[in-house]
Amino acid sequence: MGEYRRQMKLTPDMLPLHRPTDIVTAAIDGATPAPLCAAATSGRSTGSRASLWRRCVLASAKHWAVIFAGAVVVVWLLVALLTQTALMGDNVEQSNWAHSFEWGYYKHPPLPTWLLIAATRVLGPVWWLTDVLAAVCLLGTALATYALALRLTTRRNAQLALLLWGLHLTLTWRVSLYNHNTVLMLLCAALAWAVVSATQQHSMRHWMMAGACAGLALLAKYQAAILILVLLAALAQGRYLAHPLHRQGVLRAALIAALIFSPHAVWLVANDFLPMHYASHQLPKTWSLDGQVATISFALQQMRFFWPSIAAVLVCIAFIPASARSSRMNSSARNGGHGPHMVWIRYLALGPLAAVLIIGLAGTRLQNHWGMQTLQFACLGFAVWLGRGSSVRPRQFLVVALVLHLLLVATVVRNSLYVQEFGWQGQADKNYPARELAHEALADWKLASSCRLQYVVGPSFEAGTISVFSGQSPRVLEGASYIASPWIDKADLQRQGGLYVAYAQAELPPTALRQGSMVVTKSEDSKRPQTIYWGVMPPARPC
Fold it and tell me: Does 264 have pLDDT greater than 90?
């Protein structure tokens, strides 16, 4: 083999992928299958190329769980695009911010908005763009999670982990949700994979990748600091820091992360730590008893999101009989549940959860969406436990998971048909009558002015919804606040005019023309106002 390398002048990265796991590893390392196959087959016969592609097909068959997870995400994305009548609130918020590239926004760090800005430059301001970005992030998370599982346990357990991962409600009926948590999960999965790979391969390259992932994760959401601390604790517990290379790797990773985060840190100082002020108002401290009750509520909410996974496990344990072959497989699976790898699994599965629960018990009211990253690695611990304690084979679990996905899809479709018949019931934002609201408000603007609509002023969700579905992509002044939307020039808004949106007619400018309203729901239990009002402030001069 060494002589072959010298004759062909190939680097190790260009050699054929002889093992199935090489394909996953090469993909995570940044190599693409086509160049790899082209390099490996250059100068070879057609039979050799066919042999290599046959190995690629066999590798895909062994890693069918990744293909299934990807198919699940794509199918759920299609279901969302075909059934939802609006965007989720966080998607609308990202669309509002994507009108300007900033080093930070008043609520959160900037990376998710940057990704949306880049996608908009390529595809244009289409309404479904945030949904597709969410699905892309989840596809990347699935691949990184599977690669991480292969590092830590057997292939059987890795397949079970990915099947369990795909049953979480966040990854099914909320697959179109694009926010900071969606991007954070992708980067946290990549960060965990890079750190584990660095310790296993003694690779400085992986430490540098870990630093880049850590810096980008902090630019997605500050919650990434919890996982970074958990990984450092696992490194200390596993005594990896006793090795000079790993100590140097941690320092280099920290330097890279600091460099990536530094422009945003400068923005924070210049803007008086605006996201921290927002968090302090949104996350009030409670009395200790209230904090305990809120923490219990948080835990129960996370269990609700996990109910398809729990149901699948219970069905498999109850109805799949044990066999001699499965018993031997269990014995093999136990090899993936002991030793230094188990340190990583315990810390990744339980560490972020323990940290968040401590924060809650200390008096901070926990937010339910924190559970997206907090429990994203729970599937690893669950899969190892299931692999060691049951006779369930991944393909058996696949059948149960597929049935549950079909039931969930049927439920979503049924709810969509109900909304079409009886109207929005005031709960899920994705069923909001967005197009009707945008059409009626834009019609009044066109009657008052022949100019293109440049600005919408009002509450974030309603004003942003009109902007997204208007087809003209006007900028949004959220809550009429120039702090929330500092890129909007007040003088230009007065010159260009705008569409003002409010929850009450008295909140509209008294000089507004063509005032209108729309009843968006008749439900008294609606989480949003039942009636939306708007008024037109035409441009100060002809366009």
Answer: yes
Position 446 scores a pLDDT of 94
Amino acid (one-letter) located at 157: N
Q: Note the helical H segments in 334-475.
A: 340-361, 371-374, 378-389, 394-422, 434-448, 460-469
pLDDT of residue 292: 72
CA-CA distances (angstroms) from residue 473 to 191, 299, 453, 456, 537?
A: 35, 39, 8, 10, 17
Mean pLDDT taken over the chain? 85
Angle formed at CA 73 by CA 67 and CA 75, multiple of 5 degrees = 100
Characterize 125-143 residue by residue with b for buried, 16 or more Cβ atoms within 10 angstroms of its Cβ, and e for exposed. Answer: bebbbbbbbbbbbbbbbbb
Q: What is the largest CA-CA distance in the chain?
A: 85
Query: 335-347 burial string, b = 16+ CB within 10 Å, else e?
Result: ebbeeebbbbbeb
Taking 80 as the threshold, does the pLDDT of residue 211 lie above it? Answer: yes
d(CA 221, CA 215): 10
Considering only residues 362 and 499, tell me which one the structure prediction assigns the higher pLDDT.
Answer: 499
Buried b (16+ CB within 10 A) or exposed e, 68-94: bbbebbeebbebbeebbbbbbbbbbbb
Cα distances (Å, whole numbers) of residue 24 to 27, 30, 70, 161, 186: 5, 10, 14, 16, 16
Measured distance CA(402)–CA(312) in Å, rounded: 10
Q: DSSP assignment, residue 362?
A: T
Sheet of 475-478: strand order equals 475-478, 455-458, 498-502, 531-537, 513-519
Residues contacting residue 176 through CB under 8 Å, at least 6 positions apart: 77, 80, 81, 84, 87, 88, 91, 130, 131, 134, 135, 430
Mean pLDDT within 65-77: 94
Which residues have C-beta within 8 Å of that of residue 309, sequence separation ≥ 6?
A: 164, 167, 168, 379, 382
Q: In terms of Cα–Cα distance, which of 360, 377, 367 is closest to 288? A: 360
DSSP 537: E
Q: What angle (nearest 5°) sits at the alpha carbon of residue 65, between those of residues 61 and 68?
A: 100
Q: Tell me if 21 sits within 8 A of 150, measured CB to CB.
A: yes
Q: Which residue has the tokens 């063509």?
A: 514
Please report the pLDDT score of residue 63 as a whole number: 85
pLDDT score of 100 more than 90: yes
Q: What is the pLDDT of residues 188-203, one digit of tens each?
A: 999 999 999 999 999 9
